[in-house]
Structures are given as C-alpha cells and as structure tokens.
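WARN  no MSA supplied for this record, continuing single-sequence
INFO  ligand: cytidine-5'-monophosphate
INFO  echoing inputs
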Amino acid sequence: MTREDEVSGKKRILLVIGGGIAAFKALEVARLLRKKSYGVTPVMTEAAQAFVTKLSVETLCGEAVYSDLLSADQESRISHIALARSADIILVCPATANLLARMAHGLADDLATTVLLATTAPIYVAPAMNVRMWENPATQANRVLLEQRGVHFIGPVEGEMACGEFGMGRLASPEMITDILINSFARSHLLQGRHFLVTAGPTCEPIDPVRYISNHSSGLQGFAIAEALAQAGAAVTLISGPVSLPTPANVRRINVVTARDMLEATLSCLPVDGMIAVAAVSDWRTETEGQEKLKKGRHDLSILKMVENPDILAMVCHHDKRPALVVGFAAETEKLLEHAREKRLKKGCDWLLANDVKAGVFGKDHNQVSFLDDHGVENWPSESKKDIACRLVQKISTYFHQI
Ligand code: C5P
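INFO  complex generated
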C-alpha cells in the first residue's frame, strides 16, 4: 500500500501478467478492478510483452508497468521489495505453466517471480494453458505444492482453447476473477479482532522409545480451517500433532506430540473467542512408557495397561474461561448422527461437525460432514476440505456478528 492508498483506504492489487495468449484478458481484469476503485499496479514478464504492449497495460491500469529486475531506473522508482510490500493482494493472470513452475520452485529470475517470492500478501493465480500442459503431472504437482503453501487458484475452466483443443485450461472469465478477489477483500475483515484456537492432526502416545499409538489423521481439515480463519482476519493459534503440513500464512503454530501436551498448550492459550477442535486426539495411552524398547517374548504384554487421555474438548467446554463458541468434530464409523448428537451434548460444545470416516476421508482432499447445533442437523455437500473450512468460517462470522 502506498502512502496515498493508506490515506484514502484504497486497496492495491499487484497484477502480474504472464506470457500467454490469454494475456489480453488481464486488461479487462484491470479495467473491472479499477471500476470498483481498486489500485492496480502492473508487472509484466518478458514473454507477456510479446502478447500485449506495455502501452495498453499502462493505459488500462493507469500506472507505469514494472518489468525489469535489473533496471536502475525502475528500482529507483520503487525497489522490488517495496513493490512486493505495496500489494494487498497479488494476482497472477494469466499464470502460465512456466510461471507456476518457477513459483513452485522458488525461482527469482525476473521481476515477477522475485516479487512473488518477496511478498507476504495473499497470492491468487488464474492459470491459462493448453489442456495437456495443465493435466501434465509436473504442472499438477506444482499446483499441489503452491496450494499447500496457501496460493489460491482461480480456475482454469473448461472450454475451447486458442490452439483449437477443448478441455480444462481456459482462463476463468475476468468477471469471475474480479468477483473472487473482491469477495476475498470483503472476507478479510469478517473476524478481525477475534482470536481462535484450532487443534489439528493426530496425537502420538509413546509406548516405548520405538512404538506409539496414533491414528490416520492427516491434519488437512484442521489446517484448512486455521487458514480460512486467518484469511477472515482472525488471530489464529494452531495446535498441531505430528503432521507434515506447512503452516498456513499468518497462523501461529504450536507443535505437540501427546494428548497431554495438546491439553497443556490449549489451556495456556485461553481465553480465546472460539475453539475449533479438529484434532483426532488419541483416546488412550499406555499407563507407563517403557524407557527401553520392549522386547518380544521377554515382556508380559499385560504391562501395556491402557488409560484414557484427558478429553480436551470437554475440559474447554467446562472451563471457567470457556470460549464464546466451541466447535467439535466427530469421526464415526457407524450410527453417525446418533453418536454425533450424544457427543455434542456429552462434551458440551455448541456445534459439532460429524463425518463418516468409513467413506475414506483420511488424507483425502474431500470431506462430507453433517453440522449439528441446538436447532438440528444440516447435511453439507461433499466438497473439498478447504470449501468446508470456508463454509464453517462463514457460519462462525455470522455467529460473531449476531452476539
Ligand atoms: O470422543 P471423540 O474422540 O470422538 O471426540 C471428538 C472430538 O473431541 C473432536 O473435536 C476432538 O478434537 C475432541 N477430543 C479432544 N480430546 C480427546 C478426544 C477428543 O479434544 N481426548
């Protein structure tokens, strides 16, 4: 944000134009954003300049184009670091296969990729390429990597391409791209000033220095919820069991191993406005932990006496610093709604999201949940874990605007 933007409250989008036949559509995106009073700073790759002229881009953005990393003239106007910091959001449009690959691998070999590496602003990419290039495992692996790091994809969509082929790879429409950006600006204030605690992943309960009791939880749903809360402007503390997921942007993460660690970390964070308990906490641990590896045949297995772990969710629900909203999850393999209703009342949480784990949701991108509260049950559609997180965060913000 520039000094003038700060005074006027104007939001600034850094529009990175990649070199593809769809580059001309970035001009329409810039026009639509400016019509809604957003500032648009254009950055062009060298290849983009083969498809649209700097003059067209400058005219529609109303600002000079930045394109050269090693230009003393452009650096003296604004350094590449200051340029990266000036944006409230970065939009890459069109994002070519090459640009996505360079982003995924952290290259900084031109101004566009350097700015993308230096920014802390949310990044949106609108890919456009031939269907085979989009479907290529290399591009898909880059997409997954970027999504895991919090980059948002808008499209591509299905349709006819400039090369004459048909399939997934067309740039999303300029209207769709601008609507998504504008909604994300609107969402980014929904939970400002609120603090949420999210537990995620499994816990691991050591039996001896080699073995442990745990479960299949990947942490994906909890991490998606922490990310969506942060995108809605909330302060988020994510208490995570052992998983190999990157920390979402603007989220404070506390790593734990056992249920007892998770309880201690949770209690140390109270008070908060809301808690979303997504963690698959191990219900049991062994009463004692072997200091040495238990040897087969040499130990009577009855020494592995199991004891119950503390129920973190129930303890928070009955705590004198109970958050205003407590949400639990229930992973069930049978009698889903019956068990979920019982669980919500027994634990004392306000809302409960129940999912049938027999449907094989562990480690998968999609989930299907039923939402339970005092009013009854809503069956949410099967959708990506990120979409479920957005749906939940929308509900949470409605709740906090009503109290
Ligand atoms: O009892 P069950 O494990 O099915 O309960 C699931 C819900 O309770 C989840 O929200 C989970 O995070 C939470 N839980 C907890 N501490 C436990 C067990 C479950 O916070 N020891």
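The chain is about 35% helix and 25% strand.
INFO  checksum written, moving to next record
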